[in-house]
Amino acid sequence: xxxxxxxxGLGFIGSHTVVxxxxxxxxxxxxxxxxxxxxxFLDRIESITSIRPLFExxxxxIKSKVKTFFQTxxxxxxxxxxxxxxxxxxSVEQPLLYYENNLVSLINVLESxxxxxxxxxxxxxxxxxxxxxxxxxxxxxxxxxxxxxxYGNTKQIGEEILADLCKINKDLKVISLRYFNPIGxxxxxxxxxxxxxxxxxxxxxxxxxxxxxxxxxxxxGDDYPTxxxxxxxxxxxxxxxxxxxxxxxxxxxxxxxxxNLETFNLGTGKGSSVLEVVxxxxxxxxxxxxxxxxxxREGDITAAYADTSKANSELGWEAELxxxxxxxxxxxxxxxxRKNS
Length: 341
Ligand code: UD1
Known about the structure:
Layout: E1 3-7, H1 12-23, E2 27-31, H2 40-49, E3 54-56, H3 63-72, E4 76-81, H4 88-93, H5 95-113, E5 119-126, H6 150-168, E6 172-179, E7 181-183, H7 202-210, E8 217-220, E9 232-233, E10 235-237, H8 238-253, E11 261-266, E12 272-273, H9 274-285, E13 291-294, H10 309-315, H11 323-337
Parallel strand pairs: 1-2, 1-4, 2-3, 4-5, 5-6, 6-11, 7-10, 8-13
Antiparallel strand pairs: 9-12
Helix pairs in contact: 1-2, 1-8, 3-5, 5-6, 7-9, 7-11, 9-11
The protein binds uridine-diphosphate-N-acetylglucosamine.
Uridine-diphosphate-N-acetylglucosamine binds next to helix 7 and strand 8.
């Protein structure tokens, strides 16, 4: 069985990807430092797939630990690299922490992966690299805008590191996946998003409001130049996103990649406004959501949604689940999570 390392494999997107990799017959080893995830997710993954992934708690910033790991797992056929910090506001407060967490870890993994017989690497990037794109929907060729935050900058620099390395190492095969807005949870409601403290992202804020943990949702601005005045994003179900990682990994394993560094947008191709997301939640939950219009959030862009034609035609992947599916699963997950509290 082909063995794959998933770094950050107990996190939100990571755990869903582990499930999909196992469903497709891969043996998975997870590295996670548990800084923003729970060890319980190992049991939860096992309860979905009936297979317990191997697990090592490693801080990827420590080069010697990474080296030792790769020496003991020299039979890996690929790495899916999620491990990173992702809170935009925190990155502004603690830039060095973000550059260290996100880039030192990346460098350490890349150094080790080049020693393997097969160096296949799937990178978690973000649509944040486009900033407010001039043309919508956003294609992979859209210019990279100056990052709004250290977090966003780590994704841009990460992509640049990969590009420089791929130029001199043709045996290294990289696919960089630029996610739009991942939401939702596994249909089993056994894994999902676990925000620490007050959620910064829209959907967990909605579900926590509905369950009574938050007073009301603040809709950040209704005076944007969009149909209903609220911002537009491309919300993609995390299970669709997870499946794209399996497809990308198989592409490099089967030598179907056109160059040794490829980039794909992962979104649905459809933009939804904040109020449309609220309505979708109300539709699938049968509940009214308490919200008020608040002022704009600094750093927010008006609209971003993906042109997914490259992923459709080259990867043969497209999002299958709808916004309603995602909101239904997010709500089911929130209810499951708070069942005993
Ligand atoms: C945010 C990050 C982005 C990161 C992504 C990862 C910021 C500015 N951007 O994207 O860099 O890659 O998460 O998931 O933090 N909203 C509300 N009320 C809320 C929360 C959000 O109205 O309480 C609105 C926002 O204004 C935005 C939309 O909901 O229009 C989505 O927000 P969010 O889930 O935070 O995602 P992004 O801002 O797109």
